[in-house]
Write a structure and sequence with these properties.
Chain lengths: ~350, ~160
C-alpha cells in the first residue's frame, strides 16, 4: 500500500475518532440540557456560555475522583470491562460511509475508513461484542447487583439482536448488498420512480416495518430508556457499573454515548439515505462542483444523525422503563414474529412486482 | 344501592383495542406532549442574576431607621426584644451625651443592637411593637455564610445608611 493512502486513512480514522468522541462528550451536556427542557427546567448553564464547558468540568471531575478497586474483584477483568466497552464502541464507526468520494481534480479521497463488502455484518459483529464490556466488568466486580445487571444486559442484547437481524434481512432483500456504501448509494435514486424525488429513495419508505423494528432494537442495544434495565438506578443501583468509579465509570458512560452516535449514524445510513439529500441531482446538473455536493451530503448525514440523537433523548424523557418480562415478551413475542412476517411479505411483494423471479 | 349525589363515576375496564395494544399511538401522543414542554417557557429563574419579585409585605433583614434629620430613631426601650418570640434581639442602652443631638433623636439610644439572624423567624413582631417606628423588616434575605458569628448582625449592618435622607 502506498504511503499516501496510509496517511490519508490515518487522518480519516483520527477525524472519525475525534468526531465521535466530541459528539459523545457533548451528548452528555445535550442530554442533561434537553432533559431539563423537557421538564420545564434550564439544566446546566453555568460553565461557560450555555454550559458548553460542562463536559470538560465533568471530565476533570471523573479523572480526579478516587479509583476504587473492590477487594474481591477480579482486578484484570474489572479494568478490562470499561476498556472493552470503549474499544468496541469506537471501532464500529469504521465502515460507516460519511460521504461520497471527495474529488479535487484527479485526487479522490474516500470518506469511509473501510469499504468492506460485509460492512453491515461487521457492525452487527461489533455491536454484539459490545455486551462483553458490560459482562466482563459487571461479573468481575463481584457484586450481586452488578451481576444481575450483567445478566440482564446480556440476555437483552441477545434477544433484541435476533429481531434486529431479522429486520435487516428484509432490508437486505431490497438493497441486495451488505456493503454500507452500496446500501447508501442505492438510496440516491427516485422514490417509487416519482419525478422530482431524486435523492429521496430512502429505505424507510420501502421498509417502514423493518425501520420500526430496527429503531426499537437500536434502543435496546444501546441500553437506553425504555430498555435501560441493565443499569436501572431504582432497582439495581446502577447495574453493571455499580462498583466502577472514577474514569472507569466515565468510560462506561462514554461508551454508551458513542454507541448512541454510531447507531444513529447506522440507522441514518440504512434507512434515511445517509449522505443523500433531496435536490442533489439538481445541484449536480446546475454545475456545482462535486466536492461541494459531497460536503453538503456530509452535512445532511450529520443532520440526520443529530435528529436521531435528539430522538434518543426525546424518548428517554417520554417513555417509562419496561418491566423485564414485558421487555422479553416484546422482543420474542412481538418483534421477532413481526420481523419474520416482514421478510415473507417483502419477498411476496418483490416477486409480484417482478424484482425477483 | 342508589347513590345520593349521582356524582359517582363508574369506570368500565374494557379490553384494549388493537390500536391501544400496538402502543405506538400512545407513544406518539406522549412524544408530542413532551415536545410541547420542550418549547414551553421555563419555570426556572436564573437566581443570582434574576431575582424573584418579593411580595409587598415580604419580611427580610431588619433595618434600623433614621428620622428626617438623619438621627437614629431607636431609643432602646427594649419592646422589640421583649416581643421577640425567638429571643433574637439584644441591646445595650446608653445615655445621649451633650453634642450628640445630631446622632440620636431621644436622650437614650442603643449603644449596641444585635439581631441573631439564625434565631430570628422573621415574624415582624418587633416591627409591630416598636413605638418609635425605628425597625422595619424591609431588607433582603440574609446572605449565607460559613461562620455562625457572621449571622449576628450588629448596628453596623442594621442601621440604614445616612445618605438615604
Amino acid at each position: 500500500m502506498e504511503s499516501a493512502l496510509i496517511i490519508e486513512k490515518f487522518l480519516l480514522i483520527t477525524i472519525v475518532l475525534v468526531v465521535s468522541l466530541v459528539v459523545a462528550m457533548y451528548m452528555t451536556l445535550v442530554e442533561r440540557r434537553f432533559a431539563a427542557f423537557f421538564q420545564d427546567r434550564l439544566g446546566p448553564n453555568r460553565a461557560g456560555p450555555f454550559g458548553i464547558l460542562q463536559p470538560l468540568a465533568d471530565g476533570v471531575k471523573l479523572f480526579t475522583k478516587e479509583e476504587i478497586l473492590p477487594e474481591n474483584a477480579n482486578k484484570l477483568l474489572f479494568i478490562m470491562g470499561p476498556s472493552l466497552a470503549m474499544f468496541t464502541a469506537t471501532i464500529s464507526s469504521a465502515v460507516i460511509p460519511w460521504g461520497r468520494d471527495l474529488v479535487f481534480g484527479d485526487k479522490v479521497i474516500s470518506l469511509q475508513v473501510a469499504d468492506i463488502n460485509v460492512g453491515l455484518l461487521y457492525i452487527f459483529g461489533v455491536v454484539s461484542l459490545g455486551v462483553y464490556g458490560m459482562m466482563v466488568g459487571g461479573w468481575a466486580s463481584n457484586n450481586k447487583y452488578s451481576l444481575l445487571g450483567t445478566i440482564r444486559a446480556a440476555s437483552q442484547s441477545i434477544s433484541y439482536e435476533i429481531a434486529m437481524g431479522m429486520a435487516i434481512i428484509a432490508l437486505l432483500m431490497v438493497t441486495g448488498t451488505l456493503s454500507m456504501r452500496g446500501i447508501v448509494d442505492g438510496q440516491g435514486s427516485t422514490l417509487y420512480g416519482l419525478k422530482g424525488t431524486e435523492g429521496l429513495g430512502w429505505n424507510v419508505f420501502y421498509q417502514p416495518v423493518a425501520f420500526l423494528i430496527y429503531l426499537i432494537c437500536m434502543f435496546a442495544e444501546c441500553n437506553r430508556t425504555p430498555f435501560d434495565l441493565p443499569e436501572c438506578e431504582s432497582e439495581l443501583v446502577a447495574g453493571y457499573h455499580t462498583e466502577h468509579s472514577s474514569m472507569k465509570l466515565g468510560f462506561y458512560l462514554f461508551a454508551e454515548y458513542i454507541n448512541m452516535f454510531v447507531s444513529s449514524a447506522v440507522i441514518s445510513a440504512l434507512f434515511f439515505g445517509g449522505y443523500n439529500f433531496p435536490g442533489q441531482e439538481a445541484l449536480a446538473n446546475a454545475g456545482v462542483a462535486s466536492y461541494w455536493i459531497t460536503l453538503i451530503g456530509v452535512g445532511a448525514f450529520f443532520c440526520k444523525i443529530a435528529f436521531f440523537l435528539f430522538f434518543f433523548v426525546w424518548v428517554r424523557w417520554t417513555i417509562p422503563r419496561f418491566r423485564y418480562d414485558q421487555l422479553m415478551r416484546l422482543g420474542w413475542n412481538m418483534l421477532v414474529p413481526l420481523a419474520i412476517a416482514n421478510i415473507g411479505i417483502t419477498g411476496v411483494v418483490m416477486y409480484l412486482t417482478g424484482h425477483i423471479n | 344501592m342508589e347513590s345520593l349525589t349521582n356524582r359517582k363515576k363508574v369506570l368500565e375496564q374494557k379490553p384494549m383495542t388493537f390500536a391501544e395494544r400496538m402502543y405506538l399511538p400512545a407513544i406518539l401522543s406522549g412524544l408530542t406532549i413532551t415536545l410541547k414542554h420542550f418549547f414551553k417557557k421555563k419555570a426556572t429563574i436564573r437566581y443570582p442574576e434574576v431575582k424573584r419579585e418579593y411580595s409587598t409585605n415580604f419580611r427580610g433583614i431588619h433595618s434600623l431607621k433614621r428620622d428626617e434629620e438623619g438621627r437614629e430613631r431607636c431609643t432602646a426601650c427594649g419592646l422589640c426584644a421583649l416581643s421577640c418570640p425567638a429571643e433574637a434581639i439584644t441591646m445595650i442602652a446608653a445615655e445621649r451625651k451633650p453634642g450628640e443631638e445630631g446622632l440620636y433623636r431621644e436622650e437614650k439610644y442603643a449603644a449596641t443592637y444585635e439581631i441573631n439572624m439564625l434565631r430570628c423567624i422573621f415574624c415582624g413582631f418587633c416591627e409591630e411593637a416598636c413605638p418609635k417606628e425605628a425597625i422595619y423588616l424591609d431588607g433582603d434575605i440574609p446572605p449565607a455564610s460559613f461562620d455562625r458569628e457572621n449571622f449576628v448582625y450588629g448596628k453596623d449592618k442594621l442601621v440604614e445608611p445616612i445618605h438615604k435622607k
